[in-house]
Amino acid sequence: MQDQVLKEKIIERINKIEDENILKSIEFFFNTSDDEIAKFLTIAIEQYKNTEENETRDYTDYIKEWVKSM
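User: That's the sequence. What structure does it adopt?
Assistant: Structure tokens below.
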């Protein structure tokens, strides 16, 4: 049941996309093997996590400097 709901949400999101370049990228993505998609998503998720961590650290450092200057 959850798989069907997830598929519907993905289809709904894709239907909202109007940028042709994004749609072509998605088409290319879906034309690859499931293994390649899994590898890509693993890398993308790791990069996203690293970006979040870096932004948090940078933001924290900014606050510390701001408090020091008060």
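The CA atoms of residues 19 and 25 lie 10 Å apart.
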